[in-house]
Amino acid sequence: RNASKSPDPSPWRGGGEPSWCDPLGTSIMADVEIQRNDSDPLVDGYDLMEGIEADWLEEEEMSALQVIRQQPRSAVVALFAALGGFLFGLDIGYIGPVYEMQSFIDDISHGEPLGAATKGFITGVFSIGCIVTSLPMVSSLFMDKLGRKWTIMSGAWVYACGAAVQCLASDVNHLYVGRLMSGFGIGMLSTTVPVYQTEVAPKETRGALGTLYQMGITLGILSASLVDMWFTDVASGWRWAGSPRVGVALFLAIGMLCLPESPRHLARKGNNERTMQTLQWLRRGAREDYIEVEFDCVIEEVEAEMRMGEPEWGEFFSGFMLRVLMVGMAAQFLQQLCGMNAFMYYGPALFSMAGIDGTTFQVLQCSVNFLMTFPAVVLVDRVGRTFLLKWTGTVMAVFILILGTVGMVFVEIPEDCPLGKPSQCAHTAGLPYGQVHPAVSAAIVGSGLVFVAAFALGWGPVVWVFCAEIFPMKYRSKGVGVTTTASWVGNYIVAQITTLLMEHTEFGTFIFYGMFCVVCVVFAVWVPETASIPMEEVQILFEHKFGMHKRLLRHQSTFRERLLSSRPSSGRASSRGFGRAATFALRAARANSQDLSKTPKKAGMKEVQSLPDFAPTKLRFED
Asked: pTM of the full predicted structure?
């Protein structure tokens, strides 16, 4: 009602005034009619605040691809940062085929076959390094003190040193050191890159740009498998196959000098001028008022967090934040235990048991893994995170169980094999050693490829996006650090137990991982959808999921009485402005109460008194 009295059409900031950047206004309060006095101007196509035009609202509804075309810089930045995922993929795809290279056996174990435990630790020590630097007390120290940009650069330099040590290794111990150093670098990159990508992205493209990290991983795996295949029979081929990792890491470290810092990190450091400049650079092509509203959203969120004090570990590991943390950890842990990395690390050995050339299958599955990530980039914002997680998890569960069942029933692997390794004597009943019926091989290969395709479409990319957006800015670095640590713990477990499962259960390995795929589906059915929700507002979804909205409803009844107290005579306007103003009241309650379970009745009352005197005649709450 007071829109015409405001000389400044830009969104209000701080000080208990209403926030116009909250897009959940229309979902929390819908179907609102606001009456005006006859003297108030009513301009068709304008929201409650003069200058906020309807075509700006239409710009909010643009598709992800349209926004990328309009604002390409954020996409370029996110794409370059995805080189951190590419390095991760290079390491995953590199190590599996190398175990089968004769040059590697000659140089590292001096002609003696490596035991299962040694292979497991060569693979697993990399995960140990990742766990160390992804621990929240380490990762949050780097991300909060150095910033996202400089943490990525540091991780790339550390990885380059580790990769160089691996290429020059002369025995297993040297290889352990190089793998550990590379793990330190990837731990920093895997924690920071998804956060950086989501923080520089507009909300409409956050999912698409966040999936670029997983696309980098899949491209790295494919590239490594191709390079390994080219150098299989070359003298010291395993060293040449690992050398590209050094060059890519140095390119990432140097190239990041040309990219901006995350605007949200700059805002937390109190540098509002650079925050606005960075947003203007990243959002070049967008309307100026669009950029101003995003800037106000970020500043408002930072100010609300500052009022709540500095992040404390005790608060982080308790109450609401602990519940969100457990959700993120479960997502990352399940992403590992569904069995995908068993395919990546030990694919050649696994599928040689079915009479299939392991190196050829490795290249084939890596190609499928990479290509199926492209649809995920388009679909993750269009159909949502939970839709992809549910349906791809279902496909993964079905086909990995089919793979395991077919292998256990139709493939026989004798313990004593005159041809050498037991897998070389794998055969179908009634056929000579080393011969598996073509139909059985086709069923195993087909099931494996469908599983890989489903993972690449859903659980591979979506989990990284999901975990990077579910935490409030105040705890984002700590939250992503803990969830990434959970991912690396799961990765280490898979690296260690897969060789033992293969040795004792053979195709039963896939049945084991299939059980976790079923759990993945149950998890995906439960979690809330976060697509197209600004990062500053995802917390509301989890408050509802955890039942905290029932406490907030106590505040809503008070706010409702306040907002319904005035009734001008006539007129109508959009519901968006009023919904946002009322949503501000709910956010004020949270900002003034660190633990709503302890202060459910008094929180936020002081802030409510400064609400403008809007006058709705009809109001509906949706939780």
From this structure: 0.67
